[in-house]
Design a protein that fits this description.
about 300 residues, mainly alpha, Tetracycline Repressor, domain 2, 2 domains, 14 helices
Amino acid sequence: MGLLREKLIAYAELVRVHNLVVALFTTYTGYAIVYRALHANLGLDQWFPLIAAVVVLVAAGGYAINDYFDREIDAINKPERPIPSGRVSPHEALLISIVVCIAGLAIALLIGSLTFTYAFVNALLVYTYSWKLKRTGLPGNLVIAFNSASSIVFGGLAYAELVRVWHHFNTVIVVSIIAFLLVLAREFVKGVEDYVGDKAHGVRTLAVTLGPKKASLIALITVLIVAIISPLPYLLGLYNAAYLVLAAIVDAIALYSTLKLVRSSDPVREAARTRRALKICFLLGAIAFIVGLVPSL
């Protein structure tokens, strides 16, 4: 029983369950925007579990295949990960990735053709990223940021296709752009954190090609853009003032952590803290995007 428990924990680490929880929040964000346009309030109906299942399964497959292709780099950067630590074999990771991704795409096909196409493109990008694009630096960063933020678009797209309501879909796009930029900043920071291992394996991140200091500065500039455009959902008329307050908190944390990274004498060591702060910002941002839709606030 103890061995089974350890195996299940290893599988949970492989698919990054904590990130899947965040994906549920971001999926609901896009879904909630369309739902509120249709019902004038927030809530859930019978379609959300189906929509969420697609995102969770495809994302889980993406995380598993990423660890499969990253097993040699992780042996240097993160030896405690399931594959380099020996708790999950590369074959197991590959099999899990294929099975859960196919299951997610099958559900997407049940929702509709637009939903399936969007999910398929995202899955293809994730697998291509893990296989080839990660070593390209900026293109890889753009792909992973797009896929992370795309769950917001997916939530709105899938629900809109199901109920045939496209009101305020422009708000879904704006919210996803904000999320995209925040994740992109985190990817730049992650490149700084993984600088030693990435340089040894020829991964051309911004930190490797430009140096950790310049990569940190680019991350700060990206966060600054997020802070500038974050009021847009409120200005578009669907979000309340509570969103502005929460967005300001997210902006403050993100700006402080990346500014601290830029000013650090050892950005490679500081980057781990900055990455964690930006991950928290992404979760708080998802909460802000949902709370901001509550009509009474």
